[in-house]
Structures are given as C-alpha cells and as structure tokens.
Amino acid sequence: MSDCLFCKLIEGAIPSQQVYSDDKVLVFKDIKPKAAVHLLLIPRKHIASLVEVTPEDDELMAYMLRLLPTLARQQGLDTGFRTVINTGPGGGQIVYHLHFHLLGGPDLGD
Ligand code: 5GP
Ligand code: ZN
Hints:
- The protein is of the alpha+beta class and 110 residues long.
- The protein has one domain (5-104): 2-Layer Sandwich (HIT family, subunit A).
- The protein contains two helices and five strands; from the N terminus they run αβββαββ.
- The N and C termini lie far apart (40 Å).
- The mean pLDDT is 96.
- Guanosine-5'-monophosphate binds at residues 5, 14, 16, 28-32, 40, 86, 92-95.
C-alpha cells in the first residue's frame, strides 16, 4: 500500500467525509477547515504536486478545474469561492498528493 496520506484516503484505509467521487477524482472535507466550506479536490492518480503535472495530465487538470464551480454551487457558494494550490515547501504544501483547496463562506477574509 502507498505511504501517501491521500492515496490511503482514496483506498479507504483512512476515513474521510466525502462530498463527491467519480472515476477520476475524490472530493472530501478538510480535516481542519479554514472557512465555512473547505473542501479538497484530489485526482485518483498520484501526482505529488503541481510541479509533477505533465502534458499527459492536461485533460485531468481541465476536468478538475471545471468541476470546481459545480462543487461550489452544490455547497451554496452563490457569490463565489476561492481556490488554492500550495506547491512545494516554499508554497506551504504539507501533503504531497496534488490537491485543490476549495474555500468559501462568510469568514473567508481577504
Ligand atoms: P497543504 O498545505 O498540503 O496544501 O494542505 C493539506 C491539507 O490537508 C490541510 O488543509 C490539512 O488540514 C488537510 N489534511 C491533512 N490530513 C488530513 C486528513 O487526514 N484528512 C483530511 N480530510 N484532511 C487532511
Ligand atoms: Zn498519493
């Protein structure tokens, strides 16, 4: 089994509060939410970070980007939302399986 936290989550070895799942991606609630809505969107394929994305992943990346507004709408974020991708140690990345943070709600701040 992979020693990647989010791969374990995909395999079901670690529980998560899933919001959406299909053959390409998984969406679940962040364990330490920084806003009223704080979801993590991850590809089922293990990609360590944005730096490791290759042209082979273009379709997957487009799919994930286009899923964000749908997820936001489902969460009731009618006025907008924030998307964050932390990359590498300098970018504050902690979990090395690519993930898009989807944040929204009244406490979002600047
Ligand atoms: P990063 O800094 O790598 O972009 O953020 C990793 C995110 O994963 C953090 O917001 C953290 O709260 C979240 N996280 C870490 N471990 C777990 C976990 O086991 N389950 C869930 N649902 N989220 C996690
Ligand atoms: Zn992984």
